[in-house]
Amino acid sequence: MDFKVVSTDRFRKTFRGLKKNEQELVDNAINKWIENPQASSSNFEKLSFTGDNIFSIRANDAWRIIMAKFEGQYFLLHTGGQHDKTNDWAKGKRIDKNLYTGAIQIYSGKIEEFEDENIVQEPEVEYAGIFENFSHEQLLAIGVPSEWVETVQKITSEEQFMKLWDVLPDDAIENLGILLEGEIDVKVLIKQIEYKASQLPEKTEELIEVQPGLHVISEDDKLIEVLNKDINVFRFYLHPTQHYLAYNNFSGSKKVTGSAGTGKTVVALHRVKFLADQLKEGDKPILFTTFTKFLIKNIQALFAEQNIPASKLEVHNLDKLAFKLAKELEIIPRSVKPIDSKDAWSFFLRRNQEIKVKQRFLEKEYAEVILKYHVTKEEEYLGVPRVGRGAQLYDKDRRKIWKIFQQYEAYQKYSKRYTRSDVFFQLCRHLERWPEDRPFSHIVCDEVQDFGNLELRLLRVLVNEGPNDLFLAGDPFQNIYQKNTTFSKSGISIRGRSTRLKFNYRTTEEIRILATNMIAGLEVDDFSGEKATTLGDTSILSGEEPKYITCDTRSKELEYIKNYIKASFGSIGLHEICITARTKKEAMEIYEYLSDNRLPVKMLVNLENLSDLDNHVGVSTMHGVKGMEFKTMIITGFCKDHFPYKPYKFSTWSEAEQKAFIQSEYLLSYVAFSRATSYLLITGVGDKVMMLT
């Protein structure tokens, strides 16, 4: 063929959300057109109600694929299902090359309609536009199409700004987002855009090969395979906010937050590449760490593809790294293996029977005061706050307890019995005293919400303070392990260096809304002592509404799930389905039931890599799917009698402990729901959870 077919990022994401039979329908229609574009049987036709260069392919009477022709090349724009819905999306769409940014842009021309629906202003009321301080020329320079500049200057709220996502080009909306966040001065941003534009080729056939977010489909490619193939993370289109975070220097530690699916991990990985490219010979390596085991296991191969040598980068689970360093620095013996905190205190008190203070009190006080606030001296303990610890302790009582803690630490060295937390604590002490032993030049941490203050303190002392020292990415609403995560209490300063990502590139808007409803009204810390928020979040994809059904009995619920999976045969890959339950016992029950009914299933906990699913349905606890994504998620046992889940002896816990645990259950449901990219099924027995009805 004498032209190229280009998949846009949005088309690719929409296509991957379709069922297998729908993908095949789209694939057949496009391939038929490619084989003979001029044939009437290809159903390629100009759309009369939109721009001159917008076309469609009719896959059947109900399904259309929207395309654009620009300078001899064809761009796949949208395929979302029903004829009328797809046509509505196509109305007013335009494609052009921006004179200022040099990028090919796809956007809407329905300006008056947008203003009528979204910018309603009362007469004789003065409204302050959130972009009114930026000139016409500046907005043009950051990629806003000329016909949209005046409308952009009329935007008065973040809510109105979010509506621009559906009508403006991707690069323009993200550059506006940078200005709105105040991350960078407009003059500096324009200079960056001008430089990038100067590096782009002028010819469209060359530009489409290098512009992020565009993927050229060759003659030898099978469309359905190309669009479903995972893109290397370093080929992902980074929107300007993401690019700014990954490829800029910061004067100190940087915090990046965002809801599930906003691209935090992608940014963190690009950040590592940027820092590695800056390392000089003899510099200490970079540390990349995260809580998610599957990412840790795959990350080294990913960076090897980028030719980042092991001398420049270490990838570790923080627990393994802590024990490795503690042994190398001779803080603990090499033969030490961690023991449980309860066992450690039990051994100690049996050895010191003259101590009459209750074990539970000592264990909690040490963990929630000494370790949490990194208390190393008696005078520090006398002044440290004991928030949530119950009865007040006077100075004489604290002095008595402090002596017990000193005995405990001496017993650790004598008995060579250390808990995980003890090793972290002692390693922090050592690196504070001897900073020359700090092994890294920069640290990039993903899923930072899974680290408590003790782990954060260790991150702080593993690297010297300075430019680009710590890059910490996470979602406060995924703090399902009840970690106390406050940067300032761990010696980490991020004042003026904090950014929240708001655009969800993974989950449909319908699923995002339901997941977010589970955390509405919760008081969650954003790691900096402020209240975390999801205000302004939005997904770029839309799809089916989540489905919630309850059955009369557990056996009927399991039967429904079995039939649902069987009905999915041929329309979705089995490895794209994951079933979760709240407890290990319930997850195993599901696994055994489906296995007995001859359905191919695997427990995720037993896998080294997600690719090991090998066309089997995944089964896991809700905790076990953290950090993953599946096209279809099935959440089981979610009903009034079982949510929120309450463990054995819950009634004996303190009020503060109960409150924290219940909140973590709501956060856990948010995490599980948001693992679904396209389809979400929730099942249970008996009455439904009221907030989902």
Structure overview:
The chain is an alpha/beta fold and 693 residues long. The chain has 5 domains: 1-103 and 203-231, YaeB-like fold; 113-199, no CATH class; 250-330 and 437-504, Rossmann fold, CATH 3.40.50.300; 341-417, no CATH class; 544-692, Rossmann fold. 39% of the residues lie in helices and 16% in strands. It has a 6-stranded mixed beta sheet, sandwiched between helices. Strands 11-10-12-13-9-14 form a 6-stranded parallel beta sheet, with helices on both faces. Strands 17-22-21-18-20-19 form a 6-stranded parallel beta sheet, covered by helices on one side. Helix 14 links the parallel strand 10 (286-289) and strand 11. The chain is globular, with a radius of gyration of 28 Å. It starts with a strand and ends in an 8-residue tail after the last strand. The mean pLDDT is 89.
